[in-house]
Design brief:
This protein is of the alpha/beta class. Helix content is about 35%, strand content about 10%.
Length: about 550
């Protein structure tokens, strides 16, 4: 007679084996269904497969050391794009919305300037500082164009840097790494440092560009602290440490001027727009999609989105590799910030202004607070948060209400940063007010009514609309007069499915910011104030004759 305990063990072993087989079968089925679904979608086109040899990457950083080098390489890259893609793509009426068809309404080369290229804007007089603009993943320099123009008018030298893999063909997203983009960011900051001879530098990052700005800042702070440790190993009291830190930072700035390769200049301020500090957890599966796409016949699996390319300055297609790189970048930045915060709030961090919508399908609004602003020392940082349209909350069609986050932050008296909540004056009106409350306060202390109300058809802002003004010629509220170029702003169309070439899901997101004027004023004031404070500190640190 079999021992009952042995029989039970055999039964459990069989059950475990069956469970393992069932799990593997289920996962295999999911993969097969996903692959079949992907393969049933639109086929990849030339711009999804082309290999451009003249693109910048981290391996070329020793060869491409100046912005002039970068622009020369970029010129060769765009000529290669013309030869390999535009020259062989069909033209004609049926290609009118194809950005890769020469002469189409979406052809970015017909726009002056072509905002897919890196650009530099100079003020009328001597610059008072420099600003590096960093766009997001799949985006291009166009996204921060409006802010760049305003900053140049304000007296700043502005560099809008095209990230590797961007502005050309979506195929660039198959191989670009965040290390490539970080190397380009260093080159851009080194250029401004060299040009401006120790004047304050600022960084504005949009989405993934915000993560790049954080990565650079953390690197520069580490270099600054290393210099401080070497320069003043015996500093003891707080005032000595502060003075030594300012001297070390000025020394770093001085050595960076003319030799950006040798030193990193800590930015004076950061402006982070819809920052990619935390993204959806689904990004964790992207390494498996990248591996699957390497198998013969599964090239389409590399693409998480395949749409017609009708936007002249932004890819509509997106890759698993792009998601993976954002995931890697955000994890790295978050880990480094949390490591710094283990000993208490992070001090000497650049004055940081975060612009964010309370609803964002791309990045996590909570992460900007938990993984950045909440870790910084009090009094120097701020969050400008766009609430949802409170009038729309009463609609039974509204799927999500993020009132919990906005109201929680408004009542939280432990926040170490200033909060501005952009919200309805009351739930019955579309009138919008900016409620500002200082750090460690439980209620707003100032209230400003904005000139622009919520648009009647808007439920909220989105990840993609914050940096674009109402009059943007591509994404604005109204198309430019007498223009034959494509307009992708406020499009309200009705009809049967499949009639309109632009996908319905693309139309749902608001493409411009109705409150952009207020936001731009806050950004300009933020950078001006940080610039002035840095100039005053530098003057005080200068030795007397």
């Amino acid at each position: 007679m079999m021992n009952p305990l042995r029989a039970l063990k055999r039964l459990l072993k069989r059950l475990g084996l069956w469970a393992l087989i069932a799990t593997l079968g289920f996962l295999t089925g999911v993969v097969v269904i996903y692959v079949l679904w992907v393969r049933s979608g639109p086929p990849v086109q030339l711009w999804h497969t082309v290999e451009l040899e003249e693109e910048f990457n981290a391996d070329r950083a020793e060869e491409i050391t100046t912005f002039a080098d970068y622009q020369a390489l970029e010129a060769r890259l765009f000529q290669e794009l013309d030869d390999k893609v535009y020259a062989v793509t069909p033209t004609g009426p049926d290609q009118i919305l194809n950005r890769f068809s020469s002469g189409s309404a979406s052809d970015p080369r017909d726009r002056e300037p072509n905002w897919n290229l890196s650009f530099e804007l100079m003020p009328a007089a001597q610059p008072i500082g420099g600003v590096l603009l960093l766009h997001g993943m799949s985006d291009g320099p166009y996204s921060l164009r409006a802010l760049g123009l305003a900053l140049a008018e304000q007296g700043y030298q502005v560099l809008g840097l095209r990230m590797p893999g961007h502005g050309t063909a979506p195929a660039g997203l198959l191989s670009v790494t965040w290390e490539d983009m970080a190397a380009a960011t260093r080159l851009g900051m080194a250029h401004l440092a060299d040009q401006l001879d120790g004047k304050p530098l600022h960084m504005i990052g949009y989405s993934t560009g915000a993560a790049l700005a954080l990565d650079y800042t953390l690197d520069a702070m580490a270099a600054d602290e290393a210099l401080l440790a070497d320069a003043a190993p015996n500093a003891s009291d707080a005032s000595d440490r502060k003075s030594d830190h300012e001297s070390a930072q000025q020394s770093t700035t001085d050595s960076a001027a003319g030799s950006g390769k040798a030193a990193l200049q800590v930015p004076t301020s950061l402006v982070l727009v819809s920052p990619a500090i935390g993204i959806t957890k689904a990004a964790a599966v992207t390494p498996w999609l990248v591996r699957l796409s390497a198998l013969p016949g599964l090239e389409q699996v590399a693409w998480t989105t395949l749409l017609p390319e009708f936007d002249p300055f932004n890819y509509n297609a997106f890759t698993a590799n792009a998601s993976l790189q954002v995931h890697r970048m955000t994890r790295s930045a978050t880990a480094r910030l949390r490591q710094l915060a283990r000993q208490g709030p992070i001090t000497n961090f650049p004055a940081t202004l975060v612009l964010l919508s309370v609803v964002d399908a791309t990045v996590s609004p909570d992460a900007a607070i938990d993984n950045l602003l909440g870790l910084l020392t009090e009094g120097r940082h701020a969050l400008l948060l766009y609430d949802i349209n409170r009038v729309a909350v009463t609609s039974p069609l509204l799927v999500t209400d993020r009132a919990a986050l906005s109201q929680q932050l408004l009542a939280d008296d432990s926040l170490p940063f200033e909060l501005t909540l952009m919200t309805n004056a009351n739930p019955e009106t579309r009138e919008v007010v900016a409620l500002r409350k200082p750090p460690f306060s439980a209620e707003p202390t100032t209230r400003e009514t904005l000139d622009e109300p919520w648009p009647q058809d808007a439920l909220s802002l989105s990840h993609v609309d914050l940096p674009f003004p109402i009059d943007d010629p591509l994404y604005g509220r109204y198309p430019p007069e007498q223009s034959t170029e494509v307009f992708l702003g406020q499009l309200a169309v009705r009809g049967e499915r499949g009639v309109f070439k632009v996908p319905a899901q693309w139309l749902l997101r608001l493409r411009h910011n109705p409150f952009y004027d207020y936001q731009e004023r806050r950004v300009l004031d933020w950078i001006d104030e940080a610039n002035a404070q840095r100039a005053r500190a530098s003057n005080m640190a200068m030795p007397e004759d």
